[in-house]
Amino acid sequence: MSFSSKTKNELSRMDISNKCCVLAELAALLRTTGAIKLRGSNKIIIEFTTENAAVTRKIFSMLKILYNTHNEVNVKKSNRLKRHNNYTVKVDEEGAKKILLDLRILKNDTINILDFNYGIPEILIKNECCKRSYIRGAFLGCGSISDPEKAYHLEFVNHREQHGNDLIKLMEKFTLNAKLIKRKEYYITYIKESEQIVDLLNIMGAYNALLALENIRAIKETRNKINRIINCETANLGKTVN
User: Using CB atoms within 10 A of its CB, is residue 155 exposed (0-12), middle (13-18) or buried (19+)?
Assistant: First the structure.
């Protein structure tokens, strides 16, 4: 299992007691891994799609706690080379509109695709705990982290530039310096500094992943220090021999 999957599994097992935090996390998941589909006149359904079974269970339980809606879960093989499972949580028409209103995708009962709010609503992240929950939900929905043994890199793959920029502003409130680039049709919000990745894991509550990364950092720094000393000694011996 990849370091990224382990981190998501850890975050998915977190219990959230405050309703405001559940709303913030679900709002992030909807904006990153959700799809809104129109059927007929003013009829709408929501689908959450992910490759992580733990994230699927988290979405299903949050919907059940907040709305007690009838949700359908489907599993199918991905068409990609590695053939992962794709899990889809489908929300019925009755609960979909209320969810979109609560998560501030819709501004009123009128469904207008051009008027959807894909940014981060300030009303859902007023408290610090909600800010942390939103970042956690965004990571579960569209985030990934490289194996720290190979590189330090954490990113969020956004479908819309507005959400990518809003994520940067949200992380700036925790003194994190994220950047945005465009890769094909996606907007990538990313962090490369190991210290800032550690801080972000702490903000999200991924403490096991944080400790694992810190342990790898300590080993790599010790190894680099030893290599520098050896190189220095080798250079000095070479000068002495000459």
Answer: buried
Residue with tokens 């799809």: 35
- The pTM assigned to this predicted structure is 0.88
Q: Strands 85-91 and 71-77: what pairing?
A: antiparallel
Whole-angstrom Cα distance, residue 197 to residue 55?
21
Q: What does the CA dihedral 35, 36, 40, 42 come to, rounded to 10 degrees?
A: 170
Q: Which segments of 92-217 are extended strands (E)?
A: 143-145, 154-158, 179-183, 186-191
Instruction: Return the ∠ at Cα 101 (arms to 96 and 107), rounded to 5°.
Output: 130
Alpha-carbon distance of 174 to 70, in angstroms, equals 37
Q: How far is CA 173 from CA 18, 125, 158, in A?
A: 21, 11, 20
Report the interhelical angle of 128-142 vs 161-172 (nearest 10°). Answer: 140
The residue among 226 and 108 whose pLDDT is bigger is: 226
The rounded distance, in Å, linking the Cα atoms of 33 and 12 is: 15
3-state helix, strand, coil in the chain (%, to 5): 55, 20, 30
Q: What b-and-e string marks burial along 108-130, b requiring 16 or more CB atoms within 10 Å of the CB?
A: eeebeeeebeebbbeebbeeeeb
Q: In this structure, what DSSP letter does residue 148 have?
A: T
Pairing label, strands 186-191, 154-158: antiparallel
CA atoms within 13 A on the CB side of 54: 13
pLDDT tens-digit map of 144-175: 999 998 889 999 999 999 999 999 999 999 99
